[in-house]
Specification:
79 residues, mainly alpha
């Protein structure tokens, strides 16, 4: 589980630094393979951890790919 987390953090860094969100697709593919292998076995904690990391990477892929940002609040506008 530690190696999966390190790979995810490095993947996020590389995708952000080099502006290549498609790098995350390789990690998503690998994590899906790990999840499908461990889902429904005794070591279900591995599957749960992998699923959480998988969902985070999918969300970040769309954020990096489409440059999604938080909207600015109009309440803070000066008049």
């Amino acid at each position: 589980m530690t190696m999966m987390s390190i790979a995810s953090v490095l993947g996020i860094f590389i995708s952000r630094r080099f502006r290549e969100p498609y790098f995350l697709l390789a990690l998503i593919w690998a994590l899906y393979g790990i999840y499908s292998k461990w889902h429904g076995t005794i070591n279900n904690s591995i599957a749960k951890t992998t699923l959480i990391e998988l969902l985070v990477l999918v969300v970040l892929f769309f954020v990096f790919r489409f440059n999604l940002r938080m909207p600015k609040l109009s309440i803070m506008k000066k008049r």
